[in-house]
TrEMBL record:
Protein name (database record): BsuBI/PstI restriction endonuclease C-terminus
Pfam family, one: BsuBI_PstI_RE
Gene Ontology molecular function: DNA binding; magnesium ion binding; type II site-specific deoxyribonuclease activity
EC number: 3.1.21.4
Residues covered by the BsuBI/PstI restriction endonuclease HTH domain: 11-147
Record's keyword annotation contains Nuclease: yes
């Protein structure tokens, strides 16, 4: 990037920071990263003035490519989550940016997530540097109630309703393995763990979404703080079995390593351990077939009435 282009880029970033300060964004969002994010979402380059601002719909990766291509700022790939959680998330909460304007119900962890500046913000930034800026800013801030304070509440996400065996309803965030978790609870449990107590259901968006804390304590289960719990845990009181179920959509099955981890995690539990890997389809299972540990069970959601025993008894059970 030449001297002139470099100066233009620095000027544009500085102007974007001035706009963010004028909007009253939190101090943690008054930085170069957030300024570059705003510029990308407005389709601005060092050569373009604010009157040329547009409203492209961009994903995080596209924004980061914009940073590098037009402003010479290259961030490491693992910075993607920082851009999303420490800039975009706050911009959405403040009403500056719209999440998935093309499909608002898109799952929270979909790779197709995209973002677009709100129409009111687009109109405002086009006035930056003009005689109407001060008046436009005053009107914008007055009408944007969300800008008066950043709400500390969690962003509202699309939810998947799940009916528990006892009739209660649980809402899981959409996306990840949660659609499969819903099938495990509603299809697998009634068939293969009848009379069982559903004591734990994980959530791809909010960890430890459903917990029977007192029940788990009585069983001797110590909750893991580092996210190593299985996705679903069912206790069968009559047989005194603890059924540990992993839902596989992007991560692997219960292989030898994972089986060992689970044995360690539940080594103080007197109940017999039953290991189950759940897949959405047989095609998905085929990808991991060579990894599945012996002495475990496999359930495929597209054929919910069947279960596959890896070198086991006719029916699932713990192995000594």
């Amino acid at each position: 990037m030449g001297d002139r282009a470099g100066t233009q880029a620095a000027d544009r970033v500085s102007e974007a920071l001035n706009i963010l300060r004028a909007l009253g964004v939190p101090q943690k969002q008054q930085n170069e990263r957030s300024a570059l994010t705003l510029l990308a979402l407005l389709g601005l380059t060092p050569e373009k003035g604010w009157t040329q601002a547009a409203d492209p719909c961009l994903g995080i990766n596209q924004m980061m490519k914009h940073f590098e291509q037009h402003f010479g700022k290259r961030y490491a790939p693992n910075t993607r989550e920082t851009v999303r959680r420490s800039t975009i998330h706050q911009f959405v909460q403040m009403g500056l940016v719209l999440a998935n304007p093309d499909r608002p119900d898109r799952p929270v962890n979909s790779p197709k997530n995209c973002y677009q500046v709100a129409p009111a913000l687009l109109e405002l930034v086009r006035a930056y540097g003009t005689a109407s800026w001060d008046e436009s800013l005053k009107n914008f801030v007055t009408s944007a109630e969300a800008l008066r304070r950043l709400q500390p509440r969690e962003r509202v996400m699309p939810l998947i309703p799940v009916t528990l065996p006892d009739g209660r309803q649980l809402d899981l965030t959409a996306g990840g393995q949660n659609p499969l978790v819903k099938q495990i609870v509603e299809e697998f449990c009634p068939r293969f763990t009848p009379g069982g107590v559903l004591v734990y259901v994980g959530d791809a968006g909010r960890k430890q979404r459903h917990l029977e804390t007192d029940y788990l304590t009585k069983l001797g289960v110590v909750l893991d703080e580092h996210g190593k719990m299985p996705d679903v845990i069912v206790h069968l009181p009559e047989k005194h079995w603890l059924v540990l179920i992993e839902a596989v959509t992007s991560h692997g099955p219960i292989n030898v390593k994972r089986q060992h981890e689970l044995r360690e995690l539940f080594k103080k539990v007197p109940a017999g351990l039953v290991f189950v890997t759940a897949f959405p389809t047989r095609r998905a299972m085929a990808r991991y077939l060579s990894e599945i540990a012996w002495e475990t069970e496999v359930w495929v959601a597209e054929a919910p009435g069947h279960i596959i025993h890896f070198n086991g008894e006719r029916f699932p059970g713990p192995y000594e």
